[in-house]
Amino acid sequence: MYPMYRGVAKVVGMTVMPPADSMSDEIRMLEENWDAYDFFFVHIKKTDSYGEDGNFDGKVGIIEEVDALLPRITALGPAALIITGDHSTPAKLKAHSWHPIPVLIYSPDARPDGIAEFGERPCMHGSLGSRFEATDLVPYALAHAQRLEKFGA
Length: 153
What we know:
Elements: H1 3-11, H2 23-33, H3 45-53, H4 56-74, E1 81-83, E2 104-106, H5 120-124, H6 137-144
Antiparallel strand pairs: 1-2
Helix pairs in contact: 2-4, 3-4
């Protein structure tokens, strides 16, 4: 995990795991600790750093590697799973950009919205819409996880 995220995690009282050697090891740690915690944050820094390096193929490769590991994560039975980024980093620009980021919320209680792909363009047409406030993401996840007594006013 990137040092800034490790620091923020410590400040909010999260247990910070040691850095993993690979994505597979990262998911192994998730599996091993699944019953000990009720919230996990897994950060994939290489999607950002490959974008900043202009390494399109590397960025595609790490996304494909994570995609291949998703069945191991969903097999754990998460009440809600968010897949997103903290900002867009197109390899073409080699920098963070203003573009919206795709957001996926997976939950047994989610209503399918007919979107069959995960990416910027397909997610614009999903049930979350083309843009929403980032501050709404955690309440959406908590609602999907059935962790709220009431959603909204």
